[in-house]
Amino acid sequence: MEEYGLTTQLVHAERRQGVENGAVHKPIYTSSQYAYDDANDLVAVFQGRPGFSYARQGTPTTAALEKTIDQMEGGVGTCSFATGMAALTAIFYTLLKAGDHIISSQFIFGNTNSLLMNLARLGVEVTQVDARDIEQVRAAIRPNTRMVFMETIANPGTQLVDLAAIGELCEEQQLLYVLDNTMTTPYLLKGKEVKAGLVMNSLSKIICGHANALGGAVTNTGLFDWSHYPNIYEDYQSGDAKNWGLLQIRKKGLRDMGATLSADAAQRIAIGAETFEMRMERSCANALALATFLEQHPGVVSVSYPGLASHPQHERAKALFADRGFGSLLAFELQPQIDCIDFLNRLNIVLLATHLGDTRTLSLPVAKTIYHEMGPEKRRMMGIADGLLRVSLGIENENDLIGDFAQALNYYI
Ligand SMILES: *Cc1c(COP(=O)(O)O)cnc(C)c1O
């Protein structure tokens, strides 16, 4: 299937894996346990042969979705989780221990930031740098550095680090490079292209796309040599060393922590994934159109969107995403005399809600909602102004969206 385009691959992915009775979707397997006629088979599954035992470790439905996500990322193995945060928790808590050091970008998802702060309380040293400047990443490396964590397009500020150069730095220093690809998805960028060792995708966002299921996935790109990684337990140092890390994540992070993706959610995500490329094309086009409109409007002070020539990393975005688009999220600031809450209340189509990557366009006042808990000082460090509005573009018709923002803005002009 690899010779086909992404959507062709995706709409035929499950069928090609051999779905029972010619069905086109993998059924929702509700069984919690999987029984065997011969006790030898039960033993073999417990000792590593592919198969199912207890649904906390996965079902045929989650396994089918894992193969699809793996195909999207061009990986060598994928493990699914109940949410994107569960996937990140599994990565950090199974691969790091007290005394280790992790470097992360200072522009990261708020809940991930909170998770890293908790890791610091447990004795992992955390350094956050302005990774737009790779020298800051290089300067932060210590003898106990194990992992470098980056996001592809920062939310909500849309800052963009040089993902490929950081990949080379990690390769040169033999550091594990973990990339959160949620904002770009494998449509805009595959983690492997920038030399990431592990790629996390929140499946709740663009990949599911219809705001009807939560999920997350960790994909092993096969590029990292785990035989040099000091935190792999002896039990998981068997077979090809390129698989050790994901095996440990599956055993310690999925089986033991137990944040398993339900079969029900997995099937809804798999159906959403069939159209994610088309939705992404449309949302990226809508985002560019709205960003261009907002930038020219007198009621708007500034717009952050990597597709605009005014974006500080516009050239970097063009190189990384190779003209496929610039993402489906933008942020903007209104003129100070316009109250952002009053403005939001004038929108008719746009939903006032958190979440992103839905078919519907969503907006919220960032400092008062998702970054409220963080406090003013941290917000300043992350470049979040008090009046900043975030917009996650859906797939509505472009003219309707521009019209909605125009009528709300024109009230003040
Ligand atoms: C939403 C999000 C997550 C967390 O995913 P959930 O599925 O909501 O747990 C992680 N990283 C980024 C960049 C996100 O946008």
Could you explain how this protein is built, in words?
Belongs to the trans-sulfuration enzymes family. GO terms for molecular function: cystathionine gamma-synthase activity; cysteine synthase activity; O-acetylhomoserine aminocarboxypropyltransferase activity; pyridoxal phosphate binding. InterPro entries: Cys/Met-Metab_PyrdxlP-dep_enz, OAc-hSer/O-AcSer_sulfhydrylase, PyrdxlP-dep_Trfase, PyrdxlP-dep_Trfase_major, PyrdxlP-dep_Trfase_small. Its cofactor is pyridoxal 5'-phosphate. This protein folds into 2 domains: 6-265, Aspartate Aminotransferase, domain 2; 277-411, Aspartate Aminotransferase, domain 1. It has a 7-stranded mixed β-sheet with strand order 1-7-6-5-4-2-3, sandwiched between helices. The chain has a 5-stranded mixed β-sheet with strand order 8-9-12-11-10. It has helices at residues 6-16, 39-46, 60-73, 84-95, 110-121, 134-140, 163-173, 185-188, 244-256, 263-273, 276-296, 314-321, 340-345, 376-381, 398-410; strands spanning 77-81, 101-105, 125-129, 145-151, 176-180, 198-202, 216-220, 300-304, 329-334, 351-352, 362-365, 388-392. The model has no long low-confidence stretch (mean pLDDT 96). With 413 residues, the protein is of the alpha/beta class. The radius of gyration is 22 Å and the shape is globular. Pyridoxal-5'-phosphate (PLP) is lined by residues 83-85, 109, 112, 151, 155, 180, 182-183, 202, 204-205, 214, 216, 356.
